[in-house]
Specification:
The complex is a heterodimer of chains A (96) and B (378). With 96 residues, chain A is α+β, with helices and mostly antiparallel strands. Chain A has a single domain (5-95), classed as Roll (SH3 type barrels), CATH 2.30.30. In chain A, 32% of the residues lie in helices and 34% in strands. Chain A has a five-stranded antiparallel beta sheet with strand order 3-2-1-4-5. In chain A, strand 1 and strand 2 form a beta hairpin. Chain A starts with a strand and ends with a helix. Chain B is built from 15 helices and 13 strands. Chain B is 38% helix and 16% strand. The longest helix of chain B is centred in the first third of the chain and has 18 residues, at 10-27. In chain B, helix 1 runs parallel beside helix 11 (229-244) and helix 7 packs across helix 12. Classes of the chains: A alpha+beta (96), B alpha/beta (378). At the A-B interface, strand 3, strand 5, helix 1 and helix 2 of A face helix 2, helix 6, helix 7, helix 9 and helix 12 of B. The structure holds iron/sulfur cluster (SF4). Iron/sulfur cluster binds next to helix 14 of chain B. Iron/sulfur cluster binds at residues 325-327, 330, 337, 340, 342-343, 347, 353-354, 356-357, 364 of chain B.
Chain lengths: 96, 378
């Protein structure tokens, strides 16, 4: 929960709410980009960011993203983050 | 634990280890008289064990594991309050998965869920927000916890809920801050700390200046570090070099991610939504002045403590921790997890007594996962 995971911004989904689609290790997840939106939103497409509990917190370069992902995989934290994303999706769909 | 040859860059690791050894010898530290370097962040604790850095560095360098795992420092009574909220009719209680198995006095959230409460694991407060939009007839509560890295996410979520006029969304706020407990540890005469490895992702939000007091008032070095093994080794070397040169400064090893002044958008959102509590209870550390955040009155409609009149909103509090658990001493680095009488007996990852055994960032879980064999041999 405390470590961010790198993701690549692939599309802006809701400019008003500052939401974008990110690719996180092959999983697509909508993330908030308020903290990295310091210019035109389109310019963020293709950029890498450190994503923390659904919020893109800091822009990083592709090399840093690769190194960080490596370390996260080693620590088992990448898997944990991806499982948490899946759990979040399941929580939305749960009916009771 | 890994061997240096498995590191991403074994050559760089070897030369850093050699430089650390050389500097440690220059300072004159030994296994019997070591330097105590505290890594504050639980992510660092996890990485140190995963890579066996504590065994690779010069024997005169000892890592003291700090209170930087937000789940581990939660008092049991806060979990009790979560369970109480979750059991109210109509409530959907959402939480990060890390908190599910943390024991309360009677139940963990996982046990409360099994007993029928609608408790859901989510990845982000954004998921909780979406649940509130989709379920206007239900009350959606998010268990907000974490240091400054997670605080912006709940602050921005509350701002979004306010903008949209949602009336069925609130946050049970347990956010805590990093600098205050460090100050409490530095003020503790029993603690002997020679330097700090500062948290990377927290600092990405707050920058490096909140640590200035450590160098200025306490004359201890602190180096903000990334969490790859080479980052950590380099940071240890930077701390040692400061000590050898009799300097005490805030240095930033992780400048590629951590800006000196932090992230302005995050800081503005935190400031808009939160204010400091006069004090906040930490498991094992007791009440620490100004170490926790609460939701400002203007956002009271999104504050679960106000909505359910619970926790600090319900008046004075008193806490008891279970008997025989040494969580406090472990949390402050006074003893190693293996010295806790419950370690591996009354307390295992399957049947945890303390949260330090639950989260992968907790020192006890890290010892258990990576150090079981090592501990047995010691
Ligand atoms: S072994 Fe369990 S009871 Fe002992 S300090 Fe660790 S978490 Fe607490």
């Amino acid at each position: 929960m405390c470590l961010g995971i790198p993701g690549q911004i692939i599309a802006i989904t809701d400019p008003a709410r500052l939401m974008a689609m990110a690719d996180v290790s092959g999983v697509r997840r909508e993330v908030n980009i308020a903290c990295i939106a310091d210019g035109p939103l389109e310019a963020l497409i293709g950029e890498w960011a450190l994503i923390h509990v659904g919020f893109a917190m800091s822009r990083i370069d592709a090399d840093e993203a690769a190194k960080t992902l490596d370390a996260l995989h080693d620590l088992g934290e990448a898997q944990e983050a991806l499982e948490a994303m899946a759990a979040g999706q399941a929580a939305l769909e749960m009916q009771r | 634990m890994k061997y240096v040859t498995e590191f991403r860059d074994p050559k760089a690791a070897k030369s850093l280890l050699a430089a650390i050894a050389q500097t440690a010898d220059k300072i004159g530290v030994t296994r019997a008289k070591p330097l105590h370097i505290m890594e504050i962040c639980g992510g660092h604790t996890h990485a140190i064990f995963r890579y066996g850095l504590d065994k690779l560095v010069h024997e005169g360098v000892e890592f003291i594991h700090g209170p930087g795992c937000p789940v581990c420092v939660l008092p049991m009574s806060r979990i009790d309050e979560c369970v109480e909220i979750a059991r109210q009719p109509g409530v959907i209680f959402t939480t990060f998965g890390d908190a599910m198995r943390v024991p309360g006095h009677k139940q963990s959230l996982l046990q409360a869920k099994a007993a029928g409460a609608d408790i859901r694991m989510v990845y982000s407060p954004l998921d909780a927000l979406e649940l509130a939009r989709r379920n206007p007839d239900r009350e959606v509560v998010f268990f907000g916890l974490g240091f400054e890295t997670t605080t912006p996410s709940t602050a921005l979520s509350i701002q979004a809920a306010a903008r949209e006029g949602l009336t069925n969304f609130s946050i049970f706020c347990n956010h805590i801050t990093v600098p205050e407990p460090i100050k409490a540890l530095l003020d503790d005469p029993d603690m002997v700390l020679d330097g700090f490895i500062g948290p990377g992702h927290v600092s990405m939000v707050i920058g490096t200046h909140p640590y200035d007091f450590i160098a200025r008032d306490y004359h201890k070095p602190i180096v903000v570090a990334g969490f790859e093994p080479l980052d950590l080794l380099q940071s240890v070397l930077m701390v040692l070099t400061q000590i050898a040169e009799r300097r005490a400064e805030v240095e930033n090893q992780y400048a590629r991610v951590v800006p000196e002044h932090g992230n302005p958008v995050s800081l503005a959102a935190i400031d808009d939504v939160y204010e400091k509590r006069p004090s906040f209870e930490w498991r094992g550390l007791g009440e620490i002045d100004a170490s926790g955040l609460r939701i400002r009155p203007k956002y009271a409609a999104f504050d679960s403590e106000e909505k359910f009149c619970i926790g600090y909103a319900a008046g004075p509090r008193h806490f008891e921790e279970p008997e025989g658990c040494a969580c406090g001493a472990v949390m402050t680095g006074r003893i190693k997890p293996t010295a806790c009488p419950q370690f591996g007996r009354g307390c295992t990852p399957e049947m945890p007594l303390g949260a330090l055994m639950v989260s992968s960032e907790g020192a006890c879980a890290a010892y258990w996962q990576y150090g079981g064999a090592r501990a047995a041999a010691e």
